[in-house]
Amino acid sequence: MISIKVPCSTANLGPGFDVLGLALSLYLELQITFPSTPSDAHLNCEITCAGLGAENLRTDPEQNLITQVALYVLRCHNQHKFPRLTKVHIINGIPLSRGLGSSGAAVVAGAMLANEIGGLKLPKDRILDFCLMVERHPDNITAALYGGFVGACLSELDPEDAARVEVPLAEVLPEPAGGVDTGKQPPVPPLGIGQFERFRLSSDIKAVVVIPNFKVDTAKAREVYTSQRIAILTQILGQPPTDPKKVHLAMQDRMHQPYRANLVPGAGPTILALATHNFEQIAQAIIEILIGANSAGTQCQWQLLEPAYHGSTVDHDA
């Protein structure tokens, strides 16, 4: 069995809107086996699901985001279905549509799945290119793929490559995500779509994550862009012992957060606090604010997460 594990990620840290990402210790796992019993599985792929939101995950390989991405990468390498009968068991530990990078993790998992079953031997920097053709936010994608605390951006490309990068998603993913016959000869990404830098993160920092019981559509929360105070934040978070006052100052932003305040300050409803102690007190204070600002039916859970430094991993002896 092959096991692929991809961590969740949080992005838009303080002023680092669409720039800074941090991988955290909740995981999407794929368990991949190759049944010997003959099957008429569509595109040679059987999907089963467990974990968070399993009842809502699709099991048709042309409708599940993970296998859609895998098919995109395979078709870019002239493999138009899974090359052998493959069972993909999805174990999801990342809350869906809550601002913890569940879609980014799925995209990364799909690209890594294709790399394994197709024998493509792509390095991670090339896998990043394929991921960014589907998910255009490099902060989540880069954090999930490489792990740790990262700053990422899309590269400046020449006009020809830029035109290919802007291909509509329907032309990348296979039918039915696109139209009839789309995705059969999808555009191969240019080299080096994204660039990133890994930053140090002080070893005493943990993430207090408060997850409400409602969803926020990412598209509704991504209307303003800024990158204020990023330089000071990346330095402060890497210098132990962590100074909470300096972190608080560096995390503030006066441009995009006010516009998103009516949604909650993020591309999903989850609230994250970087902290070195008093974790439960911080979580309870956030929960009280969230419940007070929303309907009486709002419920929240909280978790204490560690940074995930290793990023996405593959285990061939699972």
Shape type: globular
Number of strand elements:
10
Instruction: Indicate the proportion of strand residues.
Output: 15-25%
Q: Could you tell me how far the N terminus lies from the C terminus, measured between alpha carbons in angstroms?
A: 6 Å
The structure class reads alpha+beta
Discrete helix count? 9
Name the poorly predicted regions.
Answer: 219-232
Mean pLDDT over all positions: 80
Can you put this structure into words, describing what you see?
- With 318 residues, the chain is an alpha+beta fold.
- Helix content is 28%, strand content 24%.
- The chain has nine helices and ten strands.
- The protein has helices at residues 65-75, 102-117, 124-134, 138-146, 159-165, 230-236, 244-251, 256-260, 279-293; strands spanning 2-13, 16-33, 45-51, 86-92, 149-154, 194-199, 206-212, 271-275, 300-305, 313-315.
- Strands 1, 2, 3, 4, 5, 6 and 10 form a seven-stranded mixed sheet that branches. A three-stranded antiparallel sheet has the order 8-7-9, with helices on one face.
- Helix 1 (65-75) links the parallel strand 3 (45-51) and strand 4.
- The longest helix is centred in the middle third of the chain and has 16 residues, at 102-117.
- It is globular and about 55 Å long.
